[in-house]
Amino acid sequence: MTIGISTPLPAYKVNAAFMASKAEELGFESIWYAEHPILPVHSTSPFPGSEDGVIPWTYAHFADPYIALAQASGATSTIKLGTGITLIPERNPLVLAKAVSTLDLFSGGRFILGIGTGWHREETEIMGGDFDHRWTQAKESLLALKELWTKDEAEFHGNYYDFPPVQMYPKPAQKPHPPILIGGMARRVLQRIVEVGDGWLPNRVTPQQVEDSRKQLDALAEERGRDPESITISVYGQPPDRQNAQDYLNAGANRVIVRPDVKETEEEVADEIERVAEASL
């Protein structure tokens, strides 16, 4: 089975090189870091992952995913390195393009760009994003990124991002660029994936929804002249359970990413990763 693992929170309390090395040693296919650059002290945005809408305290304790994955890259050789997710409206594509390219190049082509637009209005707006039109902004960003990754002289002219011909090096190791996985359960997420992405990265989904979505993705891909097999499904944030993972894979997922419990020391993390590996691999 193709099983990845996400990082236990608080992410900055555990050395990323240690975590990734342990995950690679145990046989995990990939390791994933999420991001929240900041969380406002005062907020009216409900957290979609809980019934009461209360944001978990750990969500203010994320490490920067690109710096963490760079450290993980230097200590590993085969495990894939993913963002689950990069909050795309909160990052300028001119800066993000170089970070992605550099990480992908120095890791030997192991990076996976998981992206989303976020659920936290206040955070998005503080970071310069247009929350009400964040998917439109995200699409522009992805189109600009592709120009920067694939052309020696790239330019882009849109509503959110506008730049004249520029040079951006290094280029990514993966051609034409690292895979772009689009997260979320928005109404048009599958159409967006076929338009500008390479896969779906849902985190609150059932095996039946995966099966139904796989059929829709295949049909949409064929309509646009894309190979359906080139579009993947990676189910994120699942409990470590072998049968649960197999159910998703049987339904059409290509990868299942399991989540460890909150831990704060390397010793606790090592024990937790071993427990998760035993339950899911």
Task: Please describe what this structure looks like.
The protein is an alpha/beta fold and about 280 residues long. About 40% of the residues lie in helices and about 15% in strands. It is built from nine helices and eleven strands. It has helices at about 15-25, 65-75, 95-105, 120-125, 135-150, 190-195, 205-225, 240-250, 265-280, and strands spanning about 5, 30-35, 80-85, 85, 110-115, 155, 160-165, 180-185, 200, 230-240, 255-260. The strands form two sheets. Strands 1-2-3-5-8-9-10-11 form an eight-stranded parallel barrel, surrounded by five helices. A two-stranded antiparallel ribbon has the order 6-7. The chain is globular, with a radius of gyration of 18 Å.
Summarize the structure.
This protein is an alpha/beta fold and 281 residues long. It has 9 helices and 11 strands.
